[in-house]
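tool_call predict_complex ligand=iron/sulfur cluster
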Amino acid sequence: MTKITGIHAKTLLSAVKPGTDNWFGLRYNLNLYRGCQHGCIYCDSRSTCYGIRNFSDILVKENALQLLEKEIRSKRERGTIGFGSMNDPYMPLEKELKITRRALEIVNRHRFPVHLITKSNLVLRDMDILKELSRIYAAVSITITTADDGLSALIEPGAPASSERFEAIRILAANGIYCGITLMPVLPFLTDQPENIEKLVLKAKESGASYIVAAMGMTIREGQQEYFYGQLDQKFPGIKDRYMQLFGLQYSCNAPNHRKLRQIYDTTCRSLSMPQHMKFYNDRKEKQMKLF
Ligand code: SF4
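tool_result ok
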């Protein structure tokens, strides 16, 4: 059972150097929790460098909303606030606690742009606020790493199945919310089949995603590695040895066939006219300005 503890945070919004986030165009990061209930076996947030002792126990930043209200007022630059860099803003306990929802209400009141990254269809609960935020800028990226629900249950055991995530994209898109897929990480020997990559792009298109962004590999570092390898031993016997042989102590671990995967991904995206980058807040603002 998840252990949930309240903590007092000193600060909440952390600044991202302008122009350095090429994935999502973030200017600020915000994490309302520490730890994550989704339990993905490959999660980078388990790395020792982040100093979270037991990642499955959840620490709730009890003063997060007061801090957000105070800090957002002091920000001179209206840049995109990213939810979900270190944990999922829609993990199961959010259903009851509604801290992400209330944080979105604050962000909306201050008219800041927002990007959410999640693996949960609980994001649909906040459609009303996302619609409001879309007048400034709101983007929802849903991470889907495999088209196979059986495999997603093994590698992302606490998150909704991949098919439920595609359905969430379909509903978001049908409601006019700018949304897409983050296809990352790609796990060597587990999700790196060309058919998986092709299927994910096809399903993204069918669901109405406006973009798909991908990385054809994963990162492995201290803390994360021990947990990941332990899970491989339990769920996919024999695979850990292949990782150890191929990557040793490497941090950045591309799938051995990453070039081929990238080629398939590029070709499939092109043939379906599926953008491989998302539009950032500034892009959209400039576009609007050109209209006047
Ligand atoms: S949803 Fe994200 S933060 Fe949560 S366990 Fe999975 S990879 Fe880690």
